[in-house]
Design goal:
- The chain is an all-beta fold.
- The relative contact order is 0.10.
- 0% of the residues lie in helices and 57% in strands.
- Strand 8 and strand 9 form a beta hairpin.
- The chain has a five-stranded mixed beta sheet, with no helix packed on it. Strands 14-21-19-16-17 form a five-stranded mixed beta sheet, with no helix packed on it.
- The N and C termini lie far apart (142 Å).
């Protein structure tokens, strides 16, 4: 029988007298195999020595492609074997510390020049380094397309001007012909009421620069309105020019006087009338919403005892409406009393300032409701 020792540690006891096998070690070092065999004629021993070393690191790094233009992408990749970590330097500046042993990434540079990627990897078997070179060049000079700019947007014009003229200016090298579609687009201004729709094409020849004018007819009216807007949309049909704006905005400024708001008339009602309608009127239609409020300005009638409001005190005139009524409820009692009065005035819907929103006050901004006693 035979006993086998590795570095003086028994690993086979009373083993066979002959054997052949394969094995491996995962730790580098010096290993001694000591064999002791015995038989009827006595004992004998022998030994063998094995040296286990760490594997040699292997490294590959590449840049693809090796030359690009400014801001063009490239791929940097590396792979290594028998290593545990890698450091990456770009032009001798450390950019990845204790990084992975393999990697692939895409990047780009915005400055022309020569770039060296130097990779150092290490493992139990030692260190290894390798490098790759990338050339970044400026793109060759070419004739560039032009630039189209709306000279003034938003363009503000009075509704009585008759026309709105939008100016488009082409500048730069202006290489290649350019054709644009131009079309109006409704906003708060209404097509056919505030302006006439326009759909046309503008064109410039190769290397031609300068201005083009789009003319839009405006339609005047007599309504007091807020500023109204419509758009002009630009669409490239052909050419590579840069459109600094995708369109333009035209603002139509109103030039009509505001409507004037007043009470329709004073009212007289008997105590048992139940409900009295108070009317406020505009002297002309308005394109705006007009808001005002009834406010007590004086009188001998007492709210809650002699009268009340069935639908609040806020007056709202939608655009185009010239007359609005509010209901005042008369409370009947059995007291013998004289006539009582209620003095109302028109004020802004927020109470201050005194002028209503969307209109001006007319001459009859106050009215009197007289309640006749019937007891």
């Amino acid at each position: 029988s035979c006993d086998l020792f590795i570095n003086d540690v028994l690993i086979v006891d009373d083993g066979p007298t002959s054997s052949e096998g394969m094995d491996s070690f995962d730790v580098a070092g010096e290993y001694f195999f000591h064999l002791e065999c015995s038989g009827p004629g006595g004992s004998i021993s022998s030994r063998a020595r094995l040296v286990v070393v760490n594997p040699t690191p292997v490294l590959r790094i590449s840049v693809n492609p090796t030359q690009v233009q400014v801001n063009e992408p490239f791929t940097l990749s590396w792979a290594s074997a028998n290593t545990t970590s890698c450091d990456l330097f770009l032009n001798d500046v450390l950019i990845v510390d204790d990084g992975p042993t393999s990697s692939e990434s895409t990047d780009r540079f915005d400055v022309a020049g020569e770039y060296f990627f130097h990779l150092e990897c290490s493992g139990p078997g030692g260190s290894i380094s390798n490098r790759a070179r990338l050339a970044v060049v400026n793109p060759p000079p070419t004739c560039s397309a032009g630039t189209v700019n709306v000279v003034a947007t938003p363009l503000r014009v009075s509704e009585s001007a008759g026309l709105a003229e939008v100016v488009l200016d082409r500048t730069g090298d202006a290489c290649g012909a350019l054709v644009l579609n131009v079309q109006t687009l409704a906003g708060t201004a209404t097509e056919g009421i505030d302006y006439e729709p326009v759909a046309t094409q503008l064109s410039w020849a190769d290397r031609e620069f300068g201005s083009r004018i789009v003319t839009i007819p405006l339609l005047d009216d007599a309504l007091d309105e807020t500023v109204e807007r419509f758009g002009l949309v630009l669409t490239r049909v052909s050419g590579a020019d840069t459109l600094l704006q995708s369109g333009a905005v035209v603002e139509i400024l109103d030039d009509d006087r505001p409507a004037r708001l007043r009470f329709e008339r004073n009212r007289v009602a008997r105590e048992n009338a139940g409900v009295v309608r108070i009317a406020a009127v505009l002297d002309q239609p308005s394109g705006r919403e007009v808001r005002a409020r009834l406010r007590l300005a004086g009188g001998s009638a007492i709210r809650g005892s002699d009268y009340g409001y069935s639908d609040g005190t806020l007056l709202i005139f939608p655009p185009g409406v010239t007359r609005v009524e509010k209901q005042v409820v008369i409370f009947e009692d059995t007291l013998v009393e004289g006539d009582e009065t209620l003095l109302l005035e028109l004020v802004d819907s927020s109470v201050a300032p005194r002028s209503p929103i969307g209109a001006r006050l007319g001459s009859r901004r106050q009215m009197t409701l007289t309640i006749r006693d019937n007891d």
